[in-house]
Each structure stands twice: as C-alpha cells, then as structure tokens.
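chain below, 187 aa
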Amino acid sequence: MESVGSLNTFSNTYLSQIYNSTNGDLMVSKVEALVPGGKATPGPPLGPALGPLGINIKLVIDQINEKTKDFNGMQVPITVIVADDKSVEIEVGTPPTSSLLLQEAGITKGSGKPNSEKVGNITVQQAAKIARMKKDDILSYDLKAAIKEVTGTGVTVGVTVEGLSIKEFQKAIDAGQYDDILSKEEW
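prediction:
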C-alpha cells in the first residue's frame, strides 16, 4: 500500500489517498477537517475536498450534521472515508478539551492573560463529565488522573475548578479531598 496526502491550508482540510501497491488502484480516500458542530455546509472546508471524490455531498453533510449536533457551537474533528466503491464512512472525534472547558464554564472565549486573569469556573462534576467525553482520547486509566489531565488545560484558558487554581485543585485531588464526590461519578 502506498499513501499520498495533501494539506489544503486555505480550507483546513487534509486529503489522503491510499493506493494498492500491486496494481496502483485507489483503495480509499480520507478527508479530515474541523467543522462546526451540527452546522457543516457544502462550502469550504468540506465541499471542495469531497467534490472530486464523486459522492453525494449533501447526503454526507447531512450525516455529519446529525452526528455532530451534540457539539453545537464547537469545532469538531471529522474524518470522511470514501472507499473505491463510493461507500462513505464518517468518523467523528471529540472537540478539543479547551472548547469543552469553555462550554462547561459558560464562556465563549478564554483569558488573554490566563496566569493572572481567570474568566470562568467549573465544578468537579463538570470536570468528570469532560473526562468521560475525552476518555478515548486521553492517556489516563482512572477518573482521578483523567480529571487532572483535562483540568490541566484550564491553565491555558483561564478556568478554575471549584474556585481553586488548577494547581491547587490538582493537589486537592491527590490529597483525596474530592474522593466522596468522585466515588459517585461513573468512569
């Protein structure tokens, strides 16, 4: 198998094509892009990337919007896989942790000065919810570690947890201060 890929920086899409190394036939094409949750359109970035593949773009866009509707207002990574028989598979990733933190904190933009200016606060339960959403994308094996991993992103956007700085919150997690709350959370 031989893989060929190209990045279109104008529309923020990545098209890769995998060819059969024995006869050179195209086996599968992949289009990777960030789309607004539930509001993808046939315009850039998807339309220009999907058009040359000879598939029904409207149908694919409708499927993407259906699969990403829960992430309304966030940029969602998607991968459209088109086989040589024109069958389409859509894979939806989870939005970036920073977007999930901002949404849970009820703010639209992070802090321009995250070290000194805090713009939002979340609860331990909200941090656990984000950790569960990112479970497949993070390296942690237990809920405590996952919460520490996702809240670490709060440092860069100016979000606190339970009114504590991220550093203080993570020390409190390690000290077992939130064990009673976390024991009720599902991992």
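The first strand starts at residue 2 and ends at 8. The first helix runs from residue 46 to 50.
thats it, cya
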